[in-house]
Structure formats: C-alpha cells, structure tokens
Specification:
Layout lengths: L1 E5 L14 H12 L6 E3 L2 E8 L2 E8 L6 H11 L4 H4 E7 L7 E4 L8 H10 L5 E6 L9 H5 L5 H22 L3 H8 L10
Parallel strand pairs: 1-4, 1-5, 5-7
Antiparallel strand pairs: 2-3, 3-4, 6-7
Helix pairs in contact: 1-6, 2-4, 6-7
Length: about 200
Amino acid sequence: MYLIAGLGNPGRKYERTKHNVGFDVIDYVTDRHRIPFSGIQFQAECGKGIIAGQKVMLAEPLTYMNLSGEAVAALVNYYKLDPEEELIVIYDDISLDPGQIRVRKKGSAGGHNGIKNIIACLGTDKFKRIRVGIGAKPDRWDLADYVLAPFTPENREKIEDAIKDAADALELILSGDMDEAMNRYNHKASREPKE
C-alpha cells in the first residue's frame, strides 16, 4: 500500500491558501478516483482506494503544517510501510513559479517546515515527493503571511493546472513510471513573454 500525504493546515480559514496546495491536490485526487474520506486516523483525515492498480491511503494531516511528521510517521509505522518505496508527500514550494511542479525521489526539506518535521519523525529524507510551486515571497512580506494568503486570481488559474499535473504525475509514479514523471514534469517554465 502507498501512503499519499498532502500537506496543509486544517480549518476553513486556511482553505485555498498557498500553504494548503497539498490538501488541494489530495481533494482533487479523491474526486477524480472517487475515494471517499473514511475518517480520522492518527491525526489525519484518511481515505483508502485504488489508483493505477495500487492500493493507496490518501491522508491530510490535521496536526498543522509544522507537525505534519507526527501524523505521517504514525501512519507509516502502523502500516509498516517503507518510506522510500511506499510514501509520497505533496506540498507547496516557494522556490517554484506558480503552476510548476517538481517530482523527486528524495531530498532535503529546502526550508519547508512540514517536510523538515516529516524527515525528523521518520529519520530519513528518502521518500518521494511532488512539490507544487506557489511563487517566491515578495519583498517586505513576512513568509508566514505570504504562504497563509490566498492566490491572486491569475495565479489561482495556474495552480488549478498544477493540481491536475500533480495528480497525473502521481498516477505515473503509482504505475511504476517515476522516471517518466520526473522527465515529463521537471522542466522549467518559460519566463519569456507570451506573444
């Protein structure tokens, strides 16, 4: 079984904010594959189903972002999962432009507190992840204020496309095509002005 954890903060006031893109992807995947949430388990809202022929558990930790590892590690340990093979984490990334995604087999936290906590709780940074770009923090903005703010309408459109891309990349990974997922989605978005 794969555990697919989307990161975010629980509660209505955080819905559709930049930091909740991981939740947005999980919500989209649950709709696309008709996987109902079945309840709360180990401080995460969870649902089980089948995607690309694989048994999956979709999870949205309810611990708030900075303690995401508590829920993720509890689920990994309870189900005796191998993080390197059976865990996929989806989360926001300020180092990517809005609408870009990156697929990785492992890596550092890159300053993301949710990932930092998952690495600390699991004791490894070897787990697959899909990063969804939310854009760099503007000058004079506090980082927390920035990631907890909603997207501009223009960027929200880009994020909706990125959410679909992340769901497609997830299906490739679950089909055993991790390299294809990286090849297809890890390209730089063009910064050239559109004609």
